[in-house]
Amino acid sequence: MEAVVTLAGEGTRVLPWSRGLRKEFLPLYDAGENGRPVLKPVAHLVVETLVASGAFHLTIVHQPRDAETVRHYFSVDPSFLRRHRRVRERLGEIRRFYDTLGRLRITFVVQPRLAGFGDAVARSRASVGGQRFFVHAGDAVLLEPRRGRLLRAMGDLLERDDLDAVLLVRKVADPRRYGVVEGRPGPSVNGLRRLDVSGMVEKPERPRTHWAATAVYAFNPSIFAALEKVRRTARPRELELTDGIRALLADGGRVASLVLSPRAGEWLSVGSPEGFGRALARTHRISARRPA
After folding, report:
1. What is the average pLDDT across 252-276?
2. Which end of the chain has the smaller Cβ count within 10 Å, N or C?
3. Rounded distance, CA 238 to CA 53, Å?
4. What's this model's pTM, rounded to 2 decimal places?
């Protein structure tokens, strides 16, 4: 499938870091080739997860100010390997990542101004074309026993049932800070609980459920028309992806969600200092005990 990675938010909750550096380049731990923990940017881990799920073309949406950094990091640079050939033993992860990038087609798309998560996704329309696609925010990671399994299950469900969207949700204690999903139980998918979505509300004061959407999605291209409809009719200052999903539902679109269980994996965001601290500690514990 196609995939869209968004690196376009302001990151005000992690100032002053985000004044000059993107939160998506905060480091988390992963198991290296020799079994020892290594540090990788969050967005690096996101790309590896998408590739493991079967994505073959990535559209990376970024701000103008980050163009050089983003494009350099996600491009193969043979000169880097030559410059550091004296420390060949430390280049294993770089070589592996370059091999991954070499098998991908990557398109870089600029979001010229901050206009919402939905706007960032909408700007990938020409790149994605008429294909089904994943969306994964670049400031959060999925930790799974087998990388890519959850996204693959979402993509398979989207295609098999000809849905407009598949969301990944998790149960949270205080859903008022999230996009909250309402729905009815459906048949399980690969051992994952399914909800057929009937409604979605962004940060409700009185949430009706505890099902909070993660920033991981699988979409039919119909989401682009839904986002454009919201932009044209509501003229919001910021176009949110939640509003596009609600527009899909209002027009009779079919949306499902899979429930993230502790056995299936975890979703960790680095969008706040506390979230980054938890994610760093959690990934260190996991990578330190995971075999290469």
Report:
1. 94
2. C
3. 30
4. 0.93
CATH architecture type of domain 2-289: Alpha-Beta Complex (3.90)
- Tokens at residue 175, please? 């859903």
Burial class (CB in 10 A: 0-12, 13-18, 19+), 169: buried
Under the banding of pLDDT at 50, 70 and 90, the label for residue 215 is very high
CA 213 to chain centre: 12
First-last CA distance in the chain = 27
Across the range 142-155, mean pLDDT stands at: 94
Statement: residue 93 has pLDDT above 80: yes
Q: What are the backbone angles phi and psi of residue 289, rounded to the nearest 5°?
A: -110, 0
Q: Read off the pLDDT of residues 18-33 as tens digits, 9 standing for 90 and up.
A: 887 889 999 999 988 7
